[in-house]
Amino acid sequence: MRRVFVALATALLCVSGSATVPLPDGKQSVIESDVIPQKLSAFGLFPFGPEAPLVSFGYTLRTPLFSDYADKRRFVSIPDGKQAKVLTDGTIEFPVGTVLVKSFGWSDVNGGRPVETRLLIHRASGWVALPYIWDADGKDATLALGGRRVPASFKSPDGDAHTIRYAVPNKNQCKECHSLNGEIVPIGPKARNFVLEPEVAKAVRSLYFENPEALKPVMPQWDDPATASVAERARAYLDVNCAHCHNPAGSASNSGLFLRWTDDPAGVNYGIGKRPTAAGRGSGGMEFAIAPGAPDHSFMIYRLESTDPGIAMPEVGRSTVHREGAALLRQWIAEMYANGQS
Amino acid sequence: MRFHHLVVSFGAALTLAMPASAKTISVSADTADANEKLQEALILAEPGDVVELGAGVWKLTDGLSLDVPNVTVRGAGTGEGGSILDFSGQQGAGEGLLVTSDDVLLTNFAVLNTKGDGIKSKGADRIVYHKLRVEWTAGPKATNGAYGIYPVESSDVLVDSVYVRGASDAGIYVGQSKNIVVRESVATENVAGIEIENSYDADVHDNIANRNTGGILVFDLPSLPMQGGHNVRVFSNIVSDNSVPNFAPAGNIVASVPTGTGVLVMANRNVEIFDNIFDRNGTANVMIVGYRYEHKDPKYQPLPRQIVVRDNQHGKAGYAPAFPGGAEIAAAMGGTLPPVLWDGSGDAIVNDEVGVLSLNLPDMAMPQSAAKPSPADLKDTAPTPLPGITLPESMEARVR
Predict the structure, then answer these.
(1) Best mutation site among A3, A15, A171, A270 for testing chain B: the one with the most B CBs within 10 Å?
(2) Which of A3, A83, A127, B185 would staple A184 via disulfide (CB 3.0–4.6 Å)?
(3) What ipTM does the predicted assembly reach?
């Protein structure tokens, strides 16, 4: 069916350069086809506006990725009759036809309406990541394959005002973070970090998960000292903010710096006593990514506290410094013993 | 069945499940939102396509990326009137252009003044960099980006006829890759002109590396996914006047390269340096050393082994040694060091008719201050020469 559809589209494109393409009825067929619609509405996920998606359930993360202090709302749409499964390593395997929906915005921008919505769609051909930017009237959102910078002025939790050119990622940048051995994969939803919103009833859990009892969000909440020690919260922060690239199959594999929750935090590959590899100006003139006891001599901190694209980490998705996150990592490094490897 | 209607416009709304016939997607530098349009073109390109960069100066604020295999990115030239990608106003991304797909040809354009690296390719097999200019136009500055041309974690890499100037690390840097040719290129006023790091099977030939801090480096470093660098041939290059004071940010390994280094081999095995023309390298024309930093990698081999130096022409060298203690050693030897410098670790054969100075530091735990310099005779019968690199014919065809 898809082949027929694509062939038809090709024929029409050749004639006129633009075409009207009939889509089969229903959002699920759009989701599962290989089309990349210009408008978010084509997926039928937001029939009631940007704040009320038609999805299976919402979720949060114990420790989220920092994105310029944006508020994020996360949803999952799982096709009727299908179920997700938690694998033994904590990865959540979503069925084909699933859409992970993430909307980004600030309470003081656009009256709190989202600025952009990113879709991560599981199609038969694999996961595909698509960025959509909401139109000025807030009724629909438009595809931004090539990414875009959107002016945004907002206040961070400490009350400071920020005016940035917020970067909506392009399709390739989505993949830079969502990449494992060159294939797109979800990052956030892992059993250890995945929290179903409280209103998601038990019955709903059993409806959408084959083994809902395996959803155990044991990862610390990075900013809640009650949930874990400074070191454990720092590791959670690094896992969520860095390890999607900094793992042996990720975009930063060549760096040899691996920051997954499961990596040995005493190892040189965790950054302790590790010399810069391809850091360039990112080294800031320092010898080590992490110099135990000395955050000011640890270029990990230097890179997190910079917004210069030649220095800043992460490379994508950050135009402001996450002061609270950097402060946690500073404290973690400051409290490491000088022989912190042991 | 009921039908919805979705209007799609050419080039922006569909990806096809089947490969279509190859096409050329032209993008103009003068388009409004040129950055976004070019990025869209790079996303919507299909295997076999050419993305054509219009002539003119492209003012770009965000790094570009290509993740579609078998695409050609072609400009109208690298100089005035060519396709100049100017990243002076860059606000995001760690490089100007990132390629993550196989069988890509980049040709005939320039990338200027990126905040980080110039052009990076990662996991991009059979990549061809051809007739490119990557430059930080203010010349050597510590605030320049690190690498100019930066293929990493790739098999079959060709860098041909490129010009790189001003990189605060290496102009042409090939890392953690296999089967590599860097040829007929010019690297000038970088910290390292050309660097082959943690890589296997490379030919670096017919290049000009002049006015860098160090001309051509062959390195192997610990604690990286791919290490044990070996089988590198550095031949028929002109390596001259590498006199630019080291401007790399401290902490990076190249920050330790003494100004005035011609070719520097650190760790590695089976490296052949032959038929090169060396001149005016104030520290040494050829340096062969071990990795002397502390490390905790039991699998790492820090010594240079089976390094062969033969049939090179040596002009002036060793008149301004820029490593600690170098001036004192030179004074004791009548003012000048011999053109070849060996730290005394591992093993090397030097059959050139020039002097060799050994620092007699065979043990990696010995600090440089323990050097007991003395002339060394490293003449010996060289092992069977390395066979040289053959790239897939598809790659050679693209630059013909």
Answers:
(1) A171
(2) A127
(3) 0.85
